[in-house]
Design a protein that fits this description.
Layout: E1 3-8, H1 24-38, E2 42-47, H2 52-56, H3 59-68, E3 75-78, E4 81-85, H4 91-95
Parallel strand pairs: 1-2
Antiparallel strand pairs: 1-3, 3-4
């Protein structure tokens, strides 16, 4: 099974789609996650304030954060390879990989 890991900046809740004015990019991401899961792609989201140990355990993420700072977040890794950084992945960036 293919695996998408999304390392995110601090979020107020696990999805980030909360409060009076949720970020439209996060709403789109949630829709895409549902579509990717239907296609058999495992998706895991981690916010730096909720799972700092997961960030530190990934060498690629640590290297990017060290070089570029937190502005590099979010970082998306598909099967361990960087798909995008500084923005959330599009549906096609993930679904189109490896097909």
């Amino acid at each position: 099974m293919r695996k998408l890991e999304i390392y995110e900046p601090p979020l107020c809740c696990p999805t980030g789609v909360c409060g009076p004015a949720p970020d439209p990019a996060l709403a789109t991401l949630q829709e895409n996650i549902l579509r990717w899961k239907k296609e058999g792609i495992a998706v895991e989201r981690m916010a730096i304030n909720q799972a700092p140990q997961r960030f530190m355990a990934n060498r690629t993420v640590v290297d990017l954060l060290t070089r570029e700072g937190q502005e590099v977040l979010p970082i998306a890794l598909l099967d361990g390879k960087v798909v995008c950084k500084g923005t959330y992945p599009t549906y096609d960036q993930v679904a189109g990989e490896g097909t």
